[in-house]
């Protein structure tokens, strides 16, 4: 992905201005024949320094913009970049093929896997098809069917998550949104095959967790993982959606926060500025992490994998006891 | 008041567990009359206690605290509370319009509870059970680390002692003040239910007014048998969120216990006065197939 296609986010406008200036100088040098190489070099070094500083001190709400960037690679983009022989498996076998959750079998560097993810679109048309990455209960039930399939054939399961949450609607309530998620949480605990989850962008509430009771959980550097969207939290606790930035700070949603709280096992690096600046680098980093996790887990027996998962989540929580 | 009357009253107070319990759970006893939220009838508090906090005029089920619930459902004096010394922390140093610590303090003063759930073992018509009972009065019955830990421990206790487990929910969902730690309690409690399933331990859930969000999407709806109390509203997303998302009016009975029954989401809807009898029946039927 070429960054020319990316509109600058508000806080990175100065980066674009500097880069424009550098380009102007280059053009000037070429036209006038002056030797501006040294000046340009210095400027480039300074620009890099500036970018490093800017992107390493982003606020949670700025990182939210990166996590939700329209050009951020989606589940299917990663599938295309990391897997071969992708074979999508459709449907929940009960009347529906929810498009917000997509699953299938594939190979990663020769390793057979089950890949399941929430899908967001890049255009309005795609977003309508994928319901903005908000699954219905039927999507979770499709995932469950695929979990069982993977379990039967001992395929490691990789779930890639990017969702603003499970869909809140009339039909979703009638067909049991809460139950569908709950059942997935419980059934993931019973699987005897390795389960690896990666938060790609937004990991909001039960809708994300419904695919993430895994042996290993990783987050992309600029993704977020939270109990509720900052907007939702702001409208409940502050009674104003305008306080979303404050809520984003308070909720501790960044990958570093989650790592510090021992909720995730690691952070997958993104290129400077975010995954949308270089899809390939991001996908490669993600693939490396997936392969090393599979390697680590593939020696474990089914019972050990279950125990590993139980103990991982059993430890979570902070309370006082005397 | 004659001396005899005074003694009578004192004796009655001591004997009536619901009265004693409700005092502990923070129910307001200073009021002698209670107004029914549904039909506006003025009801003497004493009558209301006798009718298990159900309006005798319109059948409206009042919200009740965890202690009152235990007094109503378990055999007298059979309840042994567990994990009474677990208290919430403030791992994120969370602050919205108030800080989390002062919200905890207020909730504790109001309810005399350490957090939004009471757990323990007890008996229903002689059948031993492990129970978790949530209390909505403590921060909206929200699930943070303490609720998740206590529910998980009581499920593990039920598994260890090979006795049925009953979870009685009343919750607005996961506790935002503990953010992702609260979210992980959904995973933790559901993993514990998975173990109960594998050990063939009967797990019953009773969903009471109101049960939403993270509790609906975890241990609340994982019961081998799911009972909804009459009049309870149960759902994943709140009414307001759905209305804002779809921009439509919702049906009047949306997310009521009866509505969920119609759509196959719960096994039965039960009046409060029938709960104990129903639970006993389910326990008895399953007892015959349990390992000796």
Describe the structure.
- The complex is a heterodimer of chains A (322) and B (292).
- Chain A is α/β, with parallel strands linked by helices.
- Chain A has two domains: 11-57; 64-314, 2-enoyl-CoA Hydratase, Chain A, domain 1, CATH 3.90.226.
- Chain A is built from 14 helices and nine strands.
- In chain A, strands 1, 2, 3, 4, 5, 6, 7 and 8 form an eight-stranded mixed sheet that branches.
- With 292 residues, chain B is an alpha/beta fold.
- Chain B has a single domain (64-287), classed as 2-enoyl-CoA Hydratase, Chain A, domain 1 (Alpha-Beta Complex), CATH 3.90.226.10.
- Helices cover 39% and strands 18% of the residues of chain B.
- Chain B is built from eleven helices and ten strands.
- The relative contact order of chain B is 0.11.
- Residues 12-26 of chain B have low confidence and may be disordered.
- Chains A and B meet through helix 7, helix 8, helix 9, helix 10 and helix 14 of A and strand 4, helix 6, helix 7, helix 8 and helix 9 of B.
- Strand 9 (319-321) of chain A pairs antiparallel with strand 4 of chain B, so a sheet runs across the interface.
């Amino acid at each position: 992905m070429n960054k020319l296609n990316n509109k600058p986010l508000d806080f990175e406008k100065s980066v674009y201005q500097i880069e424009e200036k550098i380009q102007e100088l280059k053009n000037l040098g070429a036209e006038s024949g002056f030797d501006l190489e040294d000046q340009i070099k210095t400027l480039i070094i300074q620009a890099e320094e500036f970018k490093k500083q800017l992107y390493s001190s982003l606020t949670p709400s700025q990182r939210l913009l990166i996590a939700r960037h329209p050009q951020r690679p989606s589940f299917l983009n990663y599938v295309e970049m990391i897997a071969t022989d992708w074979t999508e498996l459709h449907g929940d076998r009960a009347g529906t093929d929810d498009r917000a959750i997509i699953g299938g079998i594939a190979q990663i560097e020769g390793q057979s896997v089950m890949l399941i993810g929430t899908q967001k679109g890049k255009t309005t048309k795609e977003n309508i098809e994928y319901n903005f990455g908000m699954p219905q209960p039927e999507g979770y039930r499709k995932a469950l069917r695929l979990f069982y399939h993977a379990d039967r054939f001992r395929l490691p399961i990789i779930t890639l998550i990017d969702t603003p949450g499970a869909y809140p609607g009339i039909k979703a309530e009638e067909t049991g949104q809460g139950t569908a998620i709950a059942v997935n949480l419980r059934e993931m605990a019973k699987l005897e095959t390795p389960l690896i989850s990666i938060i790609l962008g937004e990991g909001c509430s039960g809708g994300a967790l419904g695919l993430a009771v895994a042996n290993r959980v990783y987050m992309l550097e600029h993704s977020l993982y939270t109990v509720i969207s900052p907007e939702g939290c702001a409208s409940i606790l502050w009674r104003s959606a305008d306080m979303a930035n404050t809520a984003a700070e308070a909720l501790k949603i960044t990958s570093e926060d989650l790592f510090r709280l021992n909720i995730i096992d690691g952070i997958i690096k993104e290129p400077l500025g975010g995954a949308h600046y270089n899809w390939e680098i991001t996908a490669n980093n993600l693939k490396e992490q997936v392969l090393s996790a599979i390697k680590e887990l593939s020696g474990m027996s089914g019972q050990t994998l279950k125990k590993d998962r139980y103990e991982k989540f059993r430890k979570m929580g902070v309370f006082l006891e005397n | 008041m004659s001396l005899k009357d005074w003694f009578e009253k004192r004796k009655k107070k001591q004997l009536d567990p619901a009265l004693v319990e409700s005092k502990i759970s923070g129910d307001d006893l200073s009021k002698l009359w209670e107004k029914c939220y549904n039909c506006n009838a003025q009801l003497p508090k004493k009558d209301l206690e006798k009718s298990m906090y159900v309006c005798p005029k319109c059948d409206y089920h009042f919200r009740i605290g965890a202690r009152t619930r235990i007094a109503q459902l378990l055999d007298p004096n059979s309840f042994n509370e567990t994990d009474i010394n677990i208290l919430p922390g403030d791992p994120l140093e969370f602050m919205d319009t108030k800080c989390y610590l002062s919200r905890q303090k207020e909730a504790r003063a109001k309810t005399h509870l350490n957090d939004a759930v009471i757990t323990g073992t007890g008996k229903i018509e002689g059948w031993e059970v492990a129970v978790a009972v949530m209390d909505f009065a403590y921060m909206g019955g929200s699930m943070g680390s303490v609720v998740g830990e206590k529910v998980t421990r009581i499920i593990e206790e039920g598994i260890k002692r090979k006795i049925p487990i009953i979870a009685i929910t009343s919750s607005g969902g996961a506790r935002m003040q503990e953010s992702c730690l609260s979210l992980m309690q959904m995973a933790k409690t559901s993993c514990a239910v998975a173990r109960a399933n594998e050990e063939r331990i009967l797990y019953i859930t009773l969903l009471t007014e109101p049960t939403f969000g993270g509790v609906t999407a975890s241990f609340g709806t994982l019961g081998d048998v799911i009972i909804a109390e009459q009049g309870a509203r149960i759902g994943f997303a709140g009414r307001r969120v759905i209305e804002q998302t779809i921009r439509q009016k919702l049906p009047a009975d949306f997310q009521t216990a009866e509505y969920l029954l119609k759509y196959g989401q719960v096994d039965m809807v039960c009046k409060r006065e029938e709960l104990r009898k129903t639970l006993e029946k389910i326990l008895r039927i399953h007892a015959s197939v349990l390992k000796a």
